[in-house]
Every structure is written in structure tokens, then in C-alpha cells.
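User: We ran a pulldown and think these components assemble together. Before we commit to crystallization trials, I'd like a predicted model of the whole complex to look at. Sequences follow.
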Amino acid sequence: MIEFNHVYKSFNVGRPNEIAALRGINLHIEASEFLVLVGSNGSGKSTLLNLIAGNIFPTSGNIKIAGQNVNKLPEYKRSKWLARVFQNPLLGTAPELSIVENFRLASLRTSSKSLKIGLNANFKEEISDRIAVLGLGLENKLQQAMGSLSGGQRQALSLLMAVMADIQILLLDEPTAALDPRSATIVLETADKLIKDYSITAIMVTHNLKDAYQYGSRIIQLHDGKIKRDISKDKKELLSYVDMYEWFI
Amino acid sequence: MDFYLTALLQGLCLSGIALGIYISMKIFNIPDITTDGSYTLGGAVTGMLLSNHLPTGIVLPIVIIAGGLAGIFTGLIHTKLKINPLLSGILVMTGLYSINLSIMGRSNIPLLNYKTLFDSFHFIADLNLNSLVILLLIATLLILLIGYILKSDYGITMRATGNSEKMVSALGVNIDRIKIVGLGFANALTAVSGFLMTQFQGFADINMGIGIVIVGLGSVIIADTFINWMNINSIWTSLILVCLGAILFQLVLAFTLSIGVDPTLLKLITALFVLSIVSLPRLNLIRN
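Assistant: Here's a predicted model for the assembly, 537 residues in total across the polymer chains.
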């Protein structure tokens, strides 16, 4: 689904403060794999995620998504494949728009935004059913402004919004870093369920080793812009929680 | 009484600007100074074409296109050259002064001897009331059009752009393009105001747009105060309030003139009036 071939990414090239964020990444992510990226600060996790999302482009090397070369493809043109959930719940939603308007936007991800009125009674009913699955009691508050919800509720809804259109890739950028433990569990459970139900290829960046241990089918540890460990599904099952802590010592 | 009726009619003429500023400022969060230029542009094109005996029905689409182009230029400068929106607007506004002057050929075109919009339809014998009916119809049409657009899928995307740009970009929207379209749309509405005002007052003038952006801003801020105060979510109500804001603004100016304030001070009063409306909610907060 996603291929990295000898990907290098440097910031501030040619200046004294040049930083090599990624140094020769070779990575193959299969369809419907749930990859968890761990690593200390500055190891290149976010850079890797941003390269897939398309906010930044590689300095050299090749990135392919669904077989297509995407080295210079801007973010908005990648939206047909991928959706993204941000660390800050505020970024993934439009706070002044209502819940149902946010979902309408999300459902238009892969289609054109025309001058049709798409937000009709049928659509509201469909959204209400989908939101009911979360069990947060939000299905009756569709007209409420998104900004009036708590961070956890917004994050759970942005996950649901991400799968509104048929996407193949879901990027989770520390989705629970800003949440309390209970909301974090709800959000991750929801993510895990949606990823399995829709067989989405998912990549999650996290600092929480417990989450990395509990969720996902493959773990990659980045260190100094290189892949240090790559634990596939079979090996991950044999891995113990304590082993993972030792990676960082 | 006629005095206030005239103010009401002027307010309706200016509701196009108010709606345009509502789109650029409230929806896209862009303070758009192009308004001063595109309002005069609407007036200049109207004056030039009407004095060449073109019917008002043909003049209107040309005015809309001209205003739209002005906004598109500002949008292009802002998004493609990454120039601060305020500066982009000022640049286009400055350039438009010369363009308007060359369209008009002189600084003032009187239209008293030509057939205008207000001579084309006769619903009521009384001239002022007839103008009122025509302007009310136009304002209603504008509200219906904008309301529909804002409720459509494209409109929801527009509203989200000013609200959470990062989300909209991640949703596969070309942010640059939607801003350019939005500014074009806003300035087309502003030009329609110039079109109406020119015919209402019976002349086009090169200086008619100076400081007009404050009228639009003032109307939107009046409306916004009510929208926040009464917790209004409906787009229709918001748009109607914006138009009412434009009317209220003119009525207040008419009132200050009627109590004998020197007309030279009119712009100062306008600025102070807008200042007082902006600060009113904050003063309230401090007291609480």
C-alpha cells in the first residue's frame, strides 16, 4: 500500500541549522496493516507521517502510495486515499460548524464539493445512526457546534469522520496525547474497531508504549532518522511489555 | 420622514457590500480592503454603460463579472504570492482607482437623463416607494442566493475554510482556489452595491468608494453583535441581520445629520459609531 525507497528528508538544507530528519528509510506497508511508530523525540516519526500525508516532500528517494509515485503530490490530492487524525482535537474539526455539517464535509472527501444541498434529512439520519455506535450520546445533538464538545468527544468524532468516505489509509498522529485516560481508551478502541471493520491501512504515531503494545499489528521503532527495530505481527505476539521499555534505555 | 426613507433605501443599496464583507470577513476571516475599489468599479462600469444607452439588465452581469475579477486578483495575490490579505486588498484597491478613472473617462458621470433600474419597473406610483420595492426584491434575491450557496456542499466547505483551514486542506480541498472564489464572490456583491447606489443617487463618482469598507464592516459587526447576543445559528437569520445592519447603519447616520451635526464630520462619526459597536460587548464584559 505504501512504499518508502531510500527516503531522505532534511530541513534547512545548506544552512548552519540543517537537520537530517530521515536518513535512508526503506519501508513497505501492506494493505490493512496497522503500523505503530514509536521512538524518542526527534527520531523522525512525525516527519515520516507528514511525508505520507504530503505536507512535506522528501529531499531524495521515492514514496509510492497504492503503486503511484507521490513524491511531489500535494496534500489535497492525496485525500482520495488517506485521512488524518491530528494530535490536537481542535485541528481535525471545524469548531463553529455543527456536528452534522462536519460530517457532511468529511463525507465529501473523495467527491466534488458541488452547489448541491447534500445535507438533507436522509443524511442526518445516517449520521445519527453512525454516531450512536460510539455510545457517547451525541446522536441527538447533531446541530450542536463542534466546538462545544470535549476533546475526547471531538477526537472520537474525527475518527468516525475519517472513515465517512472510502479511504484506504488512516494516519493517527498521537491521537490521544491531549486526552484523559478514559477518553483515550474510547478513542483508541474506536480506531481499532474502525480499522478492522473497514480493513484500513493505519499508521499511528504514539509515545505511549502501552498503547503501542496493545494496538496494531506491527511496531517500528525509529532512532535518529533510521528504522532501528521492525517487529512484524508474529514477533509482536511474542514480545513482552517489559522488552519494549528496554528499547528506550 | 423622507429623510429616513432615503436612508433606508441607501441601506438596502449597501446591503450588497454588507453581504460581501460578511463572506470575506466572517466566513473566510480575511479583512478585504478591495471593497473600496470594487464598489467604485461597480459604479464606474454602471455609469459608463448606462450613459452609452445600454439597458440595466445587460449592465448588471458585466458589473458582477468586473467586481468578481477584482476579488479574484486580490485572492491570487494573497494565495499565490503569499502576500498578507490586507496588503493584497490595498494593492488592488489602489490599482483600481486608475482603472475606474479610465473606465469613466472623467471623475463624475451624471445619469439623470438616462434610463436606470428604478425607471425600468413601476410597481407603485410613488417614486421612493417604488424604489423601495425594487431594492427589497433585490436584497431578498441576494439573501436567497447566498443562503442557498452557503447551505450547499460547496458552502459548507467555504465556511469550514475560514474556521479550520488545516482540516479542510486534509479533506482534499484546494484552499487557495476556494479563497480566490470566495473573494471574487464577495467583491461581485460589493460591485452590485456600487451598481445600485450609482443608479439610486443618479451619478457615478470616482470618490464614491472612499472609506466604504467601514460601512460594510460596521453592518457586519452590528449583525454579529446580535448574532452572538441572541445565539443565532441559522444562516438565513444571520444574512437578514447583516442586511438590517446595513440599514441601521444608514439610519444612524441620517439621525446624526438630522440633529444638526456638521456633514464634514460624517466620516468621523461613522468611525466612532463603528468603534462604539465593536467595543460595546467588551465594555459589558468588563462590567460583569
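The mean pLDDT of chain A is 87. That may be worth checking against your pulldown data before setting up trials.

User: Thanks, that helps.
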